[in-house]
Amino acid sequence: MTCRLHFFPHCGGAVVVVGGTERKYMPDITTPFLLRVRGGDRMRLRGNHHEPQSLSFVTALTGLVFTRRLAATTSAPVTVSLVAHCDAAGEDKINGRCFTIATHSFATPAVANLSDEREEEEEEEAAVVVLRSPIVLTSSGPVHSLEVRCAEKKRGDPSRGRTTADAKFYAATMHGMQRTALTRAQVNLLRAADSETRRK
Q1: Residue 133 in this model has a pLDDT that exceeds 80
Q2: What stretch of H or E contains 34?
Q3: Which of 66, 95, 147, 188 has the highest Cβ tally under 10 A?
Q4: Domains of the chain, with CATH numbers?
Q5: Distance CA 48, CA 90 (A)
Q6: What percent of the chain stands above pLDDT 70?
Q7: Distances in whole angstroms, Cα of residue 131 to Cα of each of 58, 101, 102, 103, 107
Q8: Is 119 helix (H, G, I), strand (E, B) or coil?
Q9: CA–CA gap between residue 42 and residue 195 (Å, rounded)
Q10: Would you say 33 and 176 are in contact if contact means Cβ atoms under 8 Å apart?
Q11: How far, in Å, CA of 80 to CA of 85, rounded?
Q12: The most confident of 27-41, 72-86, 181-195, by mean pLDDT
């Protein structure tokens, strides 16, 4: 089997010829990323299978920072979790499948001693979670969305445990590296920006 690689500078891509079959690839970039998702929100990684995918990426998630604004008024400990929702089949398709990537429990909030009420609302308490090994997420993998769940310990009923907390005061910020395949339009935009910079 023969393999030949042809570059096409005008479009920034390449064509790999394997056994007489041509396969075209666009260039990719690898960058660190920070992505914040607020409590109660769900972020989609891709559309449905029948929808065209506009962005192709591979992400290695290495750590998270869970935060709570000191303006939170709950009087019970709250557990914040980053949950991954996956494709499901059969009986699981009704309720879906999910797994928890990381979690942190905040104790009863301390009262912020700040004179400016506006500053008090924006002040945050943070907890860092470093994953033992990276979690890989892709634009075409089984994980289709990420959700930040907030749960409050229910008083007087330890067997049932938790109920939904006021999620707006909580968030999870993801840290890691991402490799993104550029589209033709993005390549052209970068080339135009580079040309403009060179002229200056």
Answers
A1: yes
A2: strand 28-38
A3: 66
A4: 29-181 (2.60.120)
A5: 17
A6: 64
A7: 17, 9, 8, 11, 22
A8: helix
A9: 39
A10: yes
A11: 16
A12: 27-41
